[in-house]
Structures are given as structure tokens and as C-alpha cells.
Design a protein that fits this description.
heterodimer; A: 394 residues; alpha/beta; Rossmann fold; SH3 type barrels; six-stranded antiparallel beta barrel; five-stranded parallel beta sheet; 17 strands; B: 389 residues; Aspartate Aminotransferase, domain 1; Aspartate Aminotransferase, domain 2; 2 domains; seven-stranded mixed beta sheet; 40% helix
Chain lengths: 394, 389
């Protein structure tokens, strides 16, 4: 089936045109080589826009890993899949080399955060630091009006108030707003995420109707630069042993209950694989780190719960009155059931968050994203647990 | 599609098929009795193919000098195979004698040559780069100081594919002769652009590529002086046992036709004024334009441009969208633009080396087209500059 004929196909749901007047625009589509961004490009093309496909090469897995990484984000196969989709649609396709900046700002950051006993979210960091800034720069260079991505989120443009909003995807299971809180108004104003209004099932069906070879390609799940070896082995390959020494596992009373093999190997809330000795330690969890003594702190589950946190690098998608507290809901992990809280300004780009109910395993380094209903207000990175901004101390 | 129908300004990457090549190919493809003949067969059809191959071989030899012996040519699949066949042959001979071979090459070679650095060092050999001058041309006089007792091979690119700069191969050849060292010249970009006389060049091995002279991609060529020993990459009795596999008959016939139609001096008279006029027009209309290798001796068709304030790969993409096929550095398998190692060797930063634009003219084209290109280039440079700062 020709893609240009699809706009009249009754099986295709109506996707709002990118401008009110239905103007045909030049749109840069970020193509990962997966089904979502491919359908995004096809939908926009079917609406008559001039579509340009751009793939970002972020990480070189090397030839040896071609088999193992097959079909995953950033691999050669993905780049070729994206190229085939663009060829099918007869649209130009370019690959951007962002490997150096990705290694510096995402991979090094990822490793550094673990060495600081924080648990980073590299996908958030990549979106904030690289992806969108590169895409908009490329869009400007190529004379594109819009940048479109296959994210599951809805960008709503309010031309009356000159504002753009980032709303959750209608398919809540697939919602990706958690990873996009760093978008600014300036960026959102030129951003399209046409899949936010569609369930995933429908996207796969569309891919088949568009005749895209990637229709049945599995979703990418994990961190794109971490292979089968896992994140610990990845960090250990890049960091000398002296910087990730073994040490003791302590209870908060200071009793030695085991040995750890490097603090970077443990995350808050972890229970398995601790090999603790002593009585009543079966129910112990990782509850924190004592970096001064290079010790891993464990304790009963109740120590994992806290009502307060401080977060930094706050980005408000909506302008807010910083002098007033904001009642909203927050997600402290990508797969976290959002919880009611009050956000108040702290100082600079920091905020203090107080939840109505204690939350389990608030983890420094992770993102916290704020919502009112389906509207994404903004987000920040968790700095510390508790009311003040000092690191956790037991 | 409108976007894609553009003007081709990238003949150093691959020259458009020559019309004489198209005619010869079509006449063979229309033959009712045979499509792809195997020249090894003894029957009439096979003999006919063999005759066509022999004629092509003679035409090719003639284009490489009036005394070039057709029997000293080996057909291969590509310039890459040709380069690697030469380097492996010389290195393997040394390794077989228990020598840990030393190879002198330059930092501005084609990638097919650079790939062999690892091959050699893994086998205990060593590699030294001949220094280049500020135009990117290898400095012949520096070669003497680099030669060691175990130096067995010097490899040098005759014409740089990115800048068009011509290397002083005759001087290098005379130094190699005096030191009794084998010289390999990669002439992929010289064939068709410079007059070539292999017997007078003084090299021991010279390599070529078919699609750079308007023949088909998938054909390459090695010329070797008498007395050089080949270590085959592919075993078989074809090409006198030096390169196995059924000959690429149509490819070689096309190569013969292309070789018959090249005339470097006449071509240069047609193309060089256009290139020079374009260069002048760009200098006049775009502030901050710079020609890489522009002060060195250059072949007639190549123009390698950098623009102040432009970094990264955006310019080439924007020009493609505007309908002009130019080239920038080299793209790896995934399509990522790698910064040009040639320009980096000439002192550019990684981002500068990624932003250079190479224009290479295949043949005459109306000045109108180039004038229009210059206007588009000016607008594109201005736009990319405005968003890069």
C-alpha cells in the first residue's frame, strides 16, 4: 500500500494535523529504527507533510557485539531498519553522530553517579542533555518547522495562551512523560508526539497497514549501552578497582553483618544477593550507604519509608508561582504508582517534596516528576531523602 | 521525487557511468545467446568471452602507459581488495623470511590501506607515517630518515580522494629505488585525472578502482612490476593463479571501455576552469570560506571547502535536502559521518573535519548549475551558521 493513499483509509484513526490550518510543514522525525518512530514518520507523511528521518548514533557497540545487541537501540541493525523505513516512504534519511557527546554526558555521568552511590536514569539524562538539543539544532540547520518523536506522550499546543503542555499518553501503560520532564516551552512549542493519542496495539496495526517491516519488532526495554553483561560489569570495565573497593555491610546500629563487593553493585530497596550473617537479617534490605566508611547500610523494611525528599535541577514545564506550595502527585521511579504530595520551593533550582504517605525506597539520582491529572508539571532529580538537603546519614 | 533529483557533485566517490560504457554493456546484455559467459570454458562461447577479456585488458594497459604489459595486470573486486592484496603480498613475503616487517605509509591514505595497520602490527610488524605538509601532501625528503633495515614497503596515495592534492610520487619512487624498498602507489584517484605511464613511474605495485573512471563498481585492478611475488587473498587458477574466482566478465569489459575513453589532459582542460571559477565565486560571495589543500598541486576537479563557524555534519545534510550531492568525510556502515582523518591529519579539529564539504566534478556541466549551487551554498552556510552559534 502506498503511504500517501492512507489518509483516506477508514482503518486509520484521525490524527490531528500539526497545525490548526492543516498547513503542510517540513518535519524532522527522530527515527530509532523501532516501530513507534517509524509509525510516527508514516503518519506525518500520510498527512502530506515533508518528512525527514534522522537517526542518532549514540553508542558504538562494535562489530563483535553485532549479534548480541541485534535489534536493540543504537545498533547498526536499528540504523539500517530506520533507513529501510525511510526508503520505503521515499523520504531523506540522515544519521547524526552523537557518540562523543553521549559518552561524555550520559555514559560517564551514569558511571560517575553509581560511584557516588546514586542510582541514575540515563534515559532521562539523554533526553535532557542530548537528544532534544541535537534534534532542534539539526531541525534548524535543515530548515524544519517541527521535530516529531515516537514517544508515548501528548503535546498540546495552546495558541491562545502561547503555551504548550505535556500530557500523559492515553495508553497509561506506555506513558513516557516521566522521561520527558526536561523539555522546555521553547522546545515543546515545536514538538510533535503523535502516538500519545494511540494505544500501542493500534500503533502495531498501523505499522502493518503502512507495510513497515518493523511492525513486529520487539520494544526496546533496557539501557541501550548496557549489554547482556549487566550494569555492574559495565561499570567495572570502565573504572579501576581502587575506585570501587569492597567493604563491610553494616546495620544502622553499626554491627557488621556481611561484606559487599563494591557499593555500585547495590541499589536501595534491594534484598537479594546480600549474603548477610547474624540473626533476623533475612528480612533486611539495602537502606543506604555510608560513603565515609565505604559501608553498605542494611535494615528492616520500615527504614525504607520516608515522607520527604529534596530534589535539584528542577524544570517546570508550566510557569509556577514559586512562593506558593503546589499540591500535586509525583512519580519517583518510572514504574512508580504516583503519590500525592506538596512541592515547595527550596532554593535555587531545588524543591522540597512532602508526600501525604511515606514512600518506599526513595532513591537519590532518580528523577521525580510532578503531575496534575494528566498534565506533566515538571520534574527534578532526587538529591536526598528527608527534610534537609544533607545526604542520608544514619 | 523532487527532493532527490539533484545535481551530482561527488564524482570522486563514484564517477557516473561513461556513455561509451553504457553502450558496450547494453550491446553485451542484448546478446541473445549468452548473458554472463565464463571465459574458462573451451567452447566457442567461452572463447568469445576470453577474447573480450583480453581486449579489455589491452585497452586498460594502454591507458596506463604505452609500454605497460597487459599480463602484469590482476583484476580484483575493488580498490580495497587491490590495496590489501599488495600490502599482504609484500608483508607476507617478509614474514615468511622471518623478518618483522616495517611499513611506511602516510596519515592521509584511503581507509582500505589504513585497515592494514592492525593486520601488520598483530603479526609483529611496525608502521610509520610519512609526514605531510600543510596542504596534506606527503613530504618525500622526510622518507630517507624513516627507512630502517627492516623497512620492506612504502605505500602512498597518488591523488588524495578528499582534497585532490597530488603526492610527489616520482620523488618518493626515486628514494625507494635507491634504498631498494618496494613502493606501492594507490592510484585510484589518479587514473583518468593524470597522465599515467607505469613503466616510468618507478613503483613496484600500483592499484586502481573501476568506478572512479566511470566503469562499474565491483571492479579493481593491481599492476605489478616483474619479479613481485603475489600472496593470493583468494585461491584459484584465474588471473594466472594470482586471484581466484570466475572473472567479473561484464565488469572488466566495462572497465576496458572506460579506459579507452579517458583522456586526462583534455578532461582537465574542460573541468579545471569550471572548478576554479566555482572556487573564486565561493571566495567572493561567502565570507569565511577556506579551500583545504587549495595551495598544493591538485587534480582538476576537486574542491574541498571549510567554512568558519560551521562544525559538525549539518551542512552536507542541508545541501542534500536542497538537491546537491556533495560529500563530507566518509560514512561508516550505519551512515554516521566520521570526521575526515585526512583533514584531521592536516590539523583540523574533529568537528571541523566533520563539517568540510567536498565538491568533485565528473565532467563539464553548465556554469548555470554551479552558479546556482554557489547561491544555495551561501544561503545554507548562513542558515547553519546562524543556528550553530
Amino acid at each position: 500500500m502506498e503511504i500517501s493513499n492512507l489518509s483516506n483509509n477508514p482503518n486509520i484513526p484521525h490524527i490531528p494535523h500539526v497545525t490548526d490550518s492543516g498547513d503542510k510543514k517540513r518535519v524532522l522525525v527522530a527515527m530509532s529504527g523501532g516501530v513507534d518512530s517509524s509509525v510516527t514518520a508514516a503518519l506525518l507523511k500520510s498527512q502530506g507533510h515533508e518528512v525527514i528521518g534522522v537517526h542518532m548514533q549514540l553508542w558504538d557497540h562494535g562489530q563483535a557485539n553485532l549479534e548480541r545487541f541485534g535489534g536493540r537501540c543504537c545498533s547498526l541493525i536499528d540504523s539500517n531498519d530506520a533507513r529501510r523505513v525511510c526508503d520505503k516512504m521515499d523520504i531523506p534519511y540522515y544519521v547524526i553522530n552523537a557518540q562523543d557527546v553521549f559518552e561524555e554526558r550520559v555514559v560517564d555521568y551514569f558511571v560517575h553517579e553509581y560511584l557516588q552511590s546514586r542510582t541514575p536514569n540515563p534515559c532521562v539524562q539523554c533526553n535532557n542533555q542530548i537528544k532534544f538539543s541535537y534534534l532542534f539544532q539539526k531541525a534548524d540547520q535543515l530548515g524544519c518547522d517541527w521535530v516529531a518523536t515516537g514517544h508515548y506522550a501528548q503535546v498540546v499546543h495552546d495558541s491562545i495562551h502561547q503555551m504548550s503542555y505535556l500530557k500523559k499518553a492515553v495508553d497509561h501503560q506506555k506513558d513516557q512523560t516521566y522521561f520527558l520532564f526536561g523539555l522546555t516551552q521553547k522546545a515543546l512549542r515545536r514538538t510533535l508526539m503523535p502516538l500519545g493519542g494511540l494505544p500501542k496495539m493500534m500503533v502495531r496495526r498501523l505499522a502493518e497497514q503502512f507495510g513497515l517491516a518493523v511492525a513486529q519488532k520487539p520494544d526496546s526495554q533496557e539501557i541501550c549501552f548496557i549489554g547482556a553483561e549487566g550494569y555492574s560489569a559495565f561499570i567495572e570495565k570502565r573504572v579501576v578497582p581502587e575506585l570501587r573497593p569492597e567493604g563491610k555491610i553494616l546495620t544502622i546500629e553499626g554491627d557488621v553483618v556481611g561484606e559487599h563487593t563494591g557499593l555500585h553493585r547495590y541499589t536501595i530497596g534491594q534484598r537479594k544477593g546480600l549474603n548477610l550473617q547474624g540473626s533476623q537479617t533475612e528480612e533486611f534490605y539495602v537502606v543506604g550507604y555510608d560513603r565515609r566508611r565505604n559501608a553498605l547500610l542494611v535494615g528492616p523494611e520500615k527504614l525504607l519509608f520516608s515522607k520527604e525528599l529534596v530534589a535539584s535541577n528542577m524544570n517546570w514545564i508550566h510557569p509556577v508561582d514559586e512562593l506558593r506550595s503546589i499540591r500535586c502527585k509525583a512519580r519517583i521511579r518510572s514504574r512508580h504508582e504516583e503519590a500525592s504530595c506538596v512541592v515547595s520551593a527550596f532554593e535555587g533550582d531545588r524543591v522540597r517534596v512532602e508526600f501525604d504517605e511515606p514512600q518506599r525506597a526513595i532513591t537519590p539520582g532518580q528523577a521525580i516528576v510532578f503531575y496534575q491529572d494528566d498534565d506533566t508539571l515538571g520534574g527534578a532529580f532526587i538529591e536526598s531523602v528527608g527534610a534537609d538537603s544533607s545526604p542520608i546519614q544514619f | 521525487m523532487q527532493l532527490r533529483s539533484g545535481i551530482y557533485l561527488d564524482s570522486n566517490a563514484g564517477s557516473p557511468l561513461k556513455s561509451t560504457v553504457q553502450e558496450v554493456l547494453l550491446s553485451w546484455l542484448r546478446e541473445p545467446s549468452i548473458i554472463i559467459p565464463n571465459s574458462s570454458s573451451i567452447h566457442a562461447h567461452g572463447r568469445r568471452a576470453k577474447k573480450a577479456l583480453a581486449e579489455a585488458r589491452e585497452s586498460i594497459a594502454l591507458s596506463l602507459g604505452s609500454t605497460t604489459d597487459p599480463e602484469q595486470l590482476i583484476f580484483t573486486s575493488s580498490g580495497t581488495e587491490s590495496n590489501q592484496l599488495v600490502i599482504q603480498s609484500v608483508m607476507q613475503s617478509a614474514l615468511d623470511q622471518g623478518i618483522k616487517p616495517h611499513w611506511v605509509t602516510t596519515p592521509v591514505e584511503h581507509d582500505s590501506n589504513r585497515q592494514m595497520i592492525q593486520w601488520i602490527t598483530q603479526r609483529g610488524g611496525s608502521v610509520t607515517f610519512l609526514p605531510i605538509d600543510d596542504q596534506g601532501a606527503p613530504i618525500a625528503l622526510a622518507l630517507r630518515d624513516l627507512i630502517r633495515p627492516e623497512t620492506v614497503l612504502v605505500s602512498v596515495l597518488w591523488v588524495n580522494n578528499e582534497t585532490g592534492v597530488i603526492s610527489p610520487v616520482e620523488k618518493i619512487a626515486s628514494i625507494c629505488r635507491k634504498a631498494s624498498i618496494t613502493l606501492h602507489v594507490d592510484a585510484a584517484q589518479a587514473w583518468g585525472k593524470l597522465p599515467i605511464d607505469l613503466e616510468r613511474l618507478g613503483a613496484h605495485w600500483v592499484t586502481f578502482s573501476g568506478h572512479k573512471i566511470g566503469a562499474l563498481a565491483g571492479t579493481g585492478l593491481v599492476w605489478l612490476a616483474r619479479g613481485q611475488k603475489v600472496h593470493s587473498l583468494i585461491l584459484g587458477k584465474q588471473e594466472k593463479g594470482r586471484r581466484g574466482g570466475t572473472e567479473n566478465t561484464l565488469g572488466i569489459i566495462a572497465l576496458g571501455a572506460a579506459a579507452r575513453s579517458i583522456d586526462p589532459l583534455v578532461w582537465a582542460d574542460r573541468v579545471m576552469p569550471l572548478r576554479d571559477q566555482l572556487q573564486q565565486e565561493i571566495y567572493n560571495s561567502i565570507p569565511g570560506a577556506f579551500v583545504n589543500g587549495g595551495l598544493g598541486p591538485r587534480v582538476a576537479n576537486t574542491l574541498n571547502l571549510s567554512f568558519e563557524g560551521i562544525e559538525g555534519d549539518g551542512l552536507v545534510m542541508a545541501l542534500d535536502l536542497a538537491g546537491y550531492s556533495v560529500s563530507s568525510g566518509s560514512a561508516c556502515a550505519s551512515g554516521v559521518l566520521e570526521p575526515s582523518h585526512v583533514l584531521m591529519a592536516m590539523g583540523k579539529t574533529k568537528l571541523q573535519a566533520m563539517s568540510a564539504v567536498r565538491v568533485s566534478l565528473a565532467d563539464e556541466l553548465p556554469w548555470n548549475d554551479l552558479e546556482k549551487f554557489c547561491r544555495v551554498l551561501k544561503n545554507t552556510v548562513e542558515r547553519v551558521r546562524s543556528v550553530s552559534q
